[in-house]
Design a protein that fits this description.
Length: 396
């Protein structure tokens, strides 16, 4: 084979361009982009090592051509006049990917993006869709707040450490395949029909679900920290596989809730709250044995059942405007019995409230307990001392 010198010349020219660009493919100082011209320094780089920032005065359309990986942070903050952002070849951002306070951004196109370090999108009132056609599957933290997004199509995480999705008023659906979230999941104040689904989620540290219309967490087994359901509009709360909550379990102010199914929940390490769910008639937890903190229930219940309860280490407050039967709980109170802390059980209360409130107009009993003394691990010596002290307190 023969090559013309003209051909070789062209090859050399391309090589030297590539070489020149290579030397600019890494920097310890942040690369500032103020207009489309400034993106040319990324164009010849397959991987750019360093942080890239689009300046706040940037306007119009910005396209990052060529680059497939940013090994660093990519931040766009306060560029209120930037309308469109594209990166046709970008697959990976290893650090932060932040889009913050971009008032006119209406188009985002990153069709090859699959992996991001920490994704934070906030204050994007005109961004209706993500433009991640390649589907982002990996992300350490995901935080999306105050956007116009109507779907998270383009994100389907197999692994993530924490998820916060809040105040996205157009967002009506979310489904993630994750099985374990080592830190937290927080979903709050999204669309009025917001349907959240975690079909494979088995464990997480802290979980808050607030103002969801429907929720599916069929595989959830353990929450090691807090688990809270607040102001949701679903009628049934179903956690068929949940066995333990490490800290507080709260089911509060869910106005449509009529049924709770936690059939195998056994252990709650902290407090247990079922409060102000105005349509909930029956709060029965067939398998709950241990409550490490206080039980604090109030509402309109006619039935409250804790048939397996063996150890409630904190106080017990049950106030109902309905006709709950306090007899089984009355029989379980006392420093050496099941319910160790301060005990209140009242029915027909006109305005039922939490443990700190004094029930009015109802019928029931209050018994001071020794909860404060029992925060130390149980041991017979301490238990009997607590018993004596509790006795003394009642005598005084
Ligand atoms: C956006 O454009 C408007 C009108 O041209 C200008 O007044 C404003 O300063 C620009 N904002 C930024 C952050 O550059
Ligand atoms: C879980 O929530 C508790 C209480 O807010 C907090 O102290 C703890 O750090 C959280 N854990 C994680 C892993 O986020
Ligand atoms: C619940 O747990 C059981 C036993 O581990 C398992 O067979 C079942 O598939 C789980 N259900 C869901 C929906 O994950
Ligand atoms: C009870 O829940 C409703 C929402 O269902 C809320 O508006 C109200 O403030 C709550 N009241 C108390 C005393 O928590
Ligand atoms: C209350 O709920 C439990 C568990 O779901 C059920 O077994 C029981 O029959 C219900 N009681 C009433 C009075 O509805
Ligand atoms: C309060 O409870 C006692 C004992 O269960 C019962 O005898 C009494 O009738 C009740 N009073 C009211 C007002 O419900
Ligand atoms: C840490 C913790 O509480 N682990 C429990 C998770 O749930 C399984 C049953 O599904 C228990 O066996 C673990 O002890």
């Amino acid at each position: 084979m023969m090559f013309s010198s003209k051909f070789f010349g062209a090859v050399l020219a391309i090589a030297s361009v590539a070489h020149a660009a290579d030397s600019g493919c890494s920097s310890s100082s942040t690369l500032q982009i103020q207009n489309q011209g400034d993106t040319s320094s990324l164009q010849g780089c397959t991987t750019y090592t360093g942080n890239v920032q689009i300046a706040s005065q940037t306007s119009g359309i910005i396209t990052l051509n060529g680059v497939t990986e940013i090994d660093g942070d990519f931040v766009v903050d306060g560029a209120t006049n930037m309308s469109s952002l594209a990166a046709p070849s970008l697959q990976t951002i290893t650090g932060k990917f932040t889009l913050n306070n971009l008032q006119t951004l209406s188009s985002l196109s990153m069709p090859k993006l699959t992996s991001v370090g920490d994704l934070t999108f906030a204050g994007l009132p005109n961004l209706a869709s993500l433009g991640f056609d390649g589907i982002v599957k990996q992300c350490k933290t995901l935080n999306i707040q105050n956007t116009f997004l109507s779907s998270l199509n383009g994100i389907n995480l197999q692994t993530v450490n924490s998820v916060t999705i809040a105040n996205n008023r157009m967002l009506q659906t979310l489904m993630f395949q994750v099985t374990s979230v080592p830190q937290s999941i927080i979903l709050l104040a999204n669309g009025d029909q917001f349907d959240a689904s975690f079909p494979n989620l088995e464990t997480a540290s802290n979980i808050t679900f607030r103002s969801c219309k429907s929720l599916s967490i069929p595989s959830l087994k353990n929450v090691t920290g807090n688990l809270g359901f607040y102001e949701n509009s679903f009628a049934t709360l179903d956690c068929a596989n949940l066995t333990s909550v490490g800290q507080t379990l709260a089911i509060n102010a869910n106005p449509s809730l009529t049924e709770i199914d936690l059939p195998i929940l056994k252990t709650i390490g902290g407090g247990f709250q079922v409060q102000n769910n105005t349509k909930l008639d029956n709060a029965t937890f067939p398998a709950v044995q241990t409550i490490g903190g206080a039980l604090d229930f109030y509402g309109g219940f006619n039935t409250v059942g804790l048939p397996a309860l063996k150890d409630c280490r904190g106080g017990f407050n049950l106030q109902s405007s309905g006709s709950v039967d306090c007899t089984p709980f009355n029989n379980e109170k006392g420093p050496n019995s099941v319910i160790k802390g301060t005990f209140k059980c009242y029915n027909k209360v006109s305005n039922p409230g939490n443990a700190a409130s004094t029930p009015s107009g109802g019928n029931g009993t209050t018994t001071k307990g020794a909860a404060a003394l029992l925060s130390v691990p149980s041991n017979t010596m301490l238990m009997s001392m607590a018993g004596i002290l509790a006795g003394l307190m009642i005598m005084m």
